[in-house]
């Protein structure tokens, strides 16, 4: 079958335009986008970086779609087929833009949570909800573009919502519990928490179903959100990360308590100033607590930068205090019991 020159032109020109759109897209991504990325790296804001990262992939598709649209415009296809192709291209554009915007919104939410954790909760659940919201809006726009009324869909969702809620009770309970946890700001990723069931560790993430906690031995605990929301939880990072560290000490009854207090505070200050995790500006103090069986007991109040700081602080403070007490002649007594002999019997008293 021999084609005429006009027929060859009718096929070749639209194909060339379509290919040209694809090539231009590649050139733009490899040259213009790279230059813009360098400019964005030099700025302080992260918005431009996020936008460029989101459109880096779809930019080739957009130029290719533009080329296809232009090619369709000059073809001699039937009007119905031309309209169908144009509508499909429009849907691709809307979906790709929606996907890019969803990525931008999710990245901005995540970045905002890192920069201002007191304002935005930095958890996977929040970024996923932001992404899903944008995608849902994009799908509704696509349906409207296709001429499909969304009112019956919304009505159907409302009618079927009860059935879905009954079938997914646990899933929805965990989802709403996760939202409640993040919105209440009483538990955030990075906080050190302890549940009333005994588990404790750093909150790693809050997803639509569960909260992940990393214990100090580097184990992972996975707790359903609804259990976190209904249990008694101690958050050691609220209202602030710094916390008081109490160290119980006992000295002999013959000790000069003024001397004991002065020496103990000196050691406590030195410990806070030199040991990692201590708060150098904190003024340590002691409070005598009780006349015990063999010693006068008191508590030394130190200050740690966060919950796990207390372990090293106690470790170093006890070592240094023991050495200083030996130098100062301050005695930390052993437990003492007196044995009284009566009529040949041994009677133990404490």
Explain what you see:
The protein is an alpha+beta fold and about 350 residues long. The protein folds into three domains: about 5-120 and about 130-145, no CATH class; about 170-235, SH3 type barrels; about 245-330, Alpha-Beta Plaits, CATH 3.30.70. It has ten helices and ten strands. The strands form three sheets. Strands 4-3-2-1-5 form a five-stranded antiparallel beta sheet. Strand 7 (about 285-290) and strand 8 form a beta hairpin. Helix 1 (about 5-40) packs antiparallel against helix 3, helix 3 (about 60-75) runs antiparallel to helix 4 (about 80-115) and helix 4 packs antiparallel against helix 5. The longest helix is centred in the first third of the chain and has 37 residues, at about 5-40. It is elongated, with a radius of gyration of 35 Å. The model has no long low-confidence stretch (mean pLDDT about 80).
Features of this protein?
single chain; 350 residues; alpha+beta; SH3 type barrels; Alpha-Beta Plaits; 3 domains; five-stranded antiparallel β-sheet; three-stranded antiparallel β-sheet; 57% helix
Could you name the ranges where pLDDT drops below 50 across 5 or more consecutive residues?
A: none
Fraction of residues in helix: 55-70%
The number of helical runs is 10
Average pLDDT figure: 80
Outline:
With 350 residues, this protein is of the alpha+beta class. The protein has three domains: 5-118 and 128-144, no CATH class; 171-235, Roll (SH3 type barrels), CATH 2.30.30.60; 243-328, Alpha-Beta Plaits. Helices cover 57% and strands 17% of the residues.
């Amino acid at each position: 079958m021999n084609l005429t020159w006009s027929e060859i032109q009718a096929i070749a020109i639209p194909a060339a335009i379509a290919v040209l759109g694809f090539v231009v897209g590649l050139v733009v991504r490899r040259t213009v986008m790279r230059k813009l990325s360098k400019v964005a790296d030099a700025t302080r804001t992260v918005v431009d970086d996020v936008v460029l990262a989101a459109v880096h992939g779809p930019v080739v598709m957009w130029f290719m779609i533009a080329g296809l649209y232009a090619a369709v415009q000059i073809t001699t296809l039937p009007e119905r087929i031309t309209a169908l192709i144009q509508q499909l291209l429009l849907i691709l554009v809307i979906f790709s833009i929606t996907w890019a915007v969803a990525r931008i919104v999710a990245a901005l939410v995540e970045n905002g949570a890192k920069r201002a954790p007191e304002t935005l909760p930095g958890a996977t659940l929040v970024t996923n909800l932001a992404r899903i919201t944008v995608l849902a809006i994009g799908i509704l726009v696509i349906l409207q573009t296709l001429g499909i009324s969304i009112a019956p869909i919304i009505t159907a969702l409302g009618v079927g919502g009860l059935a879905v809620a009954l079938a997914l009770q646990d899933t929805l309970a965990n989802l709403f519990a996760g939202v409640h946890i993040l919105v209440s700001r009483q538990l955030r990723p990075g906080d050190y928490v302890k549940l009333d069931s005994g588990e404790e560790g750093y909150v790693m993430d809050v997803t639509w179903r569960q909260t992940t906690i990393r214990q100090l031995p580097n184990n992972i605990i996975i707790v359903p959100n609804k259990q976190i929301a209904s249990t008694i939880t101690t958050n050691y990072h609220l209202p602030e990360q710094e916390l008081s560290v109490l160290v119980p000490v006992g000295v002999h009854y013959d000790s000069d308590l003024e001397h004991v207090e002065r020496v103990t505070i000196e050691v406590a200050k030195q410990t806070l100033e030199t040991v990692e995790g201590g708060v150098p500006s904190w003024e340590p103090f002691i409070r005598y607590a009780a006349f015990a069986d063999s010693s006068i007991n008191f508590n030394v109040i130190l200050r740690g930068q966060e919950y796990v700081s207390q372990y090293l602080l106690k470790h170093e403070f006890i070592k240094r205090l023991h050495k200083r007490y030996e130098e100062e002649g301050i005695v930390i007594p052993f437990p003492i019991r007196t044995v009284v002999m009566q009529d040949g019997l041994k009677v133990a008293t404490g």
